[in-house]
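Hey L., structure's done. Input below.
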Amino acid sequence: MSTVTQRLNDDWRRFIDSDLFYSFRRSPITIVAFVVVVTLILAAIFAPWIAPHDPFDVSTLSLLNSELPPAWVAGGDPAFLLGTDGQGRDVLSALLYGARISILVGLASVAFAMTLGVCLGLLAAYVGGTVDALIMRIADVMISFPPILVALLINGVARGVLPPEMQHDAVIFVLILAIGLTTWVQYARTVRGSTLVEKNREYVLAARVIGLRSRSIMAKHILPNVIGPILVVATVNLAIAILIEAALSFLGVGMPPTEPSLGTLIRIGNEFLFSGVWWVVIFPSAVLVLLVLSVNLLGDWLRDALNPKLR
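Output:
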């Protein structure tokens, strides 16, 4: 057996025997939430292979198939399990592709916000003084406004700066930037508080004595010891990022109808709600609620499992 395989086996056994995995096994709700999140993520990743139809291929759409109810309702077509929308687009296929975009934007914006917030939080706490005051005052200003308003402002500025021919291609990057810049404050504050405690411990003082650079101390010594709270914030913020993206798309400043996310699908379906075509809005809303609820449940479990006071 190679050294790498042996190390992986040792790490796996250590994880199986850990308090974290024990807490996970003892929580049926967390297991269900984990299964739901993994299932939705896998379905989104493999959407091109498991979707019955390609909702973005205009040549396959037919108005003769528009507003068909789900297959189990009278008048439904077995070829369209969850029915179709006003353009004849398969709702199930649109859901798979829409969830793909929503999850992608959520994960990318969380990664961006976490990177920015962790770096600024470490810098503020370790350097202190004017740098700390400046970063924290910026954080205070950011947190005083609702995230959706800040995201709308950033989105509007980006659309005004970019030339019209680039706006369509850059919309997903603008969403990631807008959501990331509204959620980095929690990471910065969490990391700053933990770093203020850790930087005065013996192992950090010893690292300074032997001449390690501040960047190395922050990255290799302090950061691994504050990673627990960061993971909790990231899990909770994933649900918030997905909701912000859905809200922006619902308001018409997010993903376009040609590449819909869950929020865009809800906005499109809302126009048909009072005409009796309920399935166009109900199913995307249900998937969004299920995804956000499951991620929040995982975040609540992770917060309790990593809290030493509850062990």
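The domain at 26-54+68-310 is CATH 1.10.3720.10 (MetI-like fold). The chain has a mean pLDDT of 81.

-- N.
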